[in-house]
Amino acid sequence: MPRRIMQGTVVSDKGDKTIIVLVERRVMHPVYKKFIRQSKRYAAHDENNQFKTGDNVFIEESRPISKRKRWVVLTDAAAAAESGSSAG
């Protein structure tokens, strides 16, 4: 089964080798048919403590690292966008 990858914003970098990433998604309300924003916070492993509050990052599902951490940071979203645009 493939590992999930999500994009979000770092909202906390207080922990050692841990960041909290806020992932927002838009879903349609089942009755009112209006799009609403739902958000969830994920604890992700940041090995080098390189990401700071406000950074956009990609996180990937992984093995359990601690009680709350099941995600690892892949890369900075801005860096991924730059490398993707220069490839073409």
TrEMBL record:
Top-rank lineage group of the source organism: Bacteria
Pfam families per UniProt: Ribosomal_S17
The entry's keywords: Ribonucleoprotein, Ribosomal protein, RNA-binding, rRNA-binding
GO cellular component: cytosolic small ribosomal subunit
PROSITE patterns xrefs: RIBOSOMAL_S17
GO biological process: translation
Record carries keyword Electron transport: no
InterPro entries in alphabetical order: NA-bd_OB-fold, Ribosomal_uS17, Ribosomal_uS17_bact/chlr, Ribosomal_uS17_CS
An example molecular function term from Gene Ontology annotations: structural constituent of ribosome
Oligomeric form and interacting partners: Part of the 30S ribosomal subunit.
Protein family per UniProt: Belongs to the universal ribosomal protein uS17 family.
Entry function: One of the primary rRNA binding proteins, it binds specifically to the 5'-end of 16S ribosomal RNA.
The protein's name: Small ribosomal subunit protein uS17
Annotated organism of origin: Skermanella aerolata
The encoding gene: rpsQ
